DNA sequence: CACCAGGCAAGTA
DNA sequence: TACTTGCATGGT
């Protein structure tokens, strides 16, 4: 049992408080956001999501039937718009083929098996799969992202070059398997990353973990 | 102007 | 397994 993992969580929570993630109006919106936010600032993602809302196509079936070129235009502000339109289509095709577009049906699937299925979709990697599992479906899976690696590697918990699975194991083997806890912890790490631990802008003198 | 943002896949060696 | 590159907008 590594106590540092728990200590860091308590310090972050004490400093920043609840983060209320994922910022979205629906479970479906979380899934779309998970793909749109790949290597992209959340600010740009909200512009893309707003476009989808204004066009009234932010439902599974509407997006499924939307031409990919039109979808690409709508998600343009999120960057990589051609690739993301394709990835959204890949995911929607999977979602309807195996779960008839039903979040309820998908949520009933065994978490480990569902994770494998998600990873088989072209365009869904480990972080996107785990974001969907945790933030959309409320499954106890810890999400690892660039901030998480940067922060925890600076605190010598693992190396920044360690694999996704290695980093994930550090968290999941040292915390209760609690979706609410995983949700809050990861959100707090992103908050810390945005405020203090951005790339090439270390402000560790003011870091609340010190 | 340079650099970064809640990644991933495909190609190479 | 471990690199490298393409994808692209918008903020600092």
Poorly predicted tracts of residues: none
CATH topology name of the largest domain: Endonuclease III, domain 1
Question: Residue-averaged pLDDT, rounded?
Answer: 95
Helical stretch count? 12
Helix/strand structural class: mainly alpha
Radius of gyration: 17 Å
**Percent of residues in β-strands:** under 5%
CATH level-1 class of the largest domain = Mainly Alpha
Largest sheet: none
How many β-strands, per DSSP? 0
Q: What is the helix/strand order?
A: HHHHHHHHHHHH
Helix content: 55-70%
Oligomer state equals single chain
Tell me the count of domains: 2
Shape: globular
End-to-end separation: 22 Å
CATH superfamily of the largest domain: Hypothetical protein, domain 2
* CATH architecture group name of the largest domain: Orthogonal Bundle
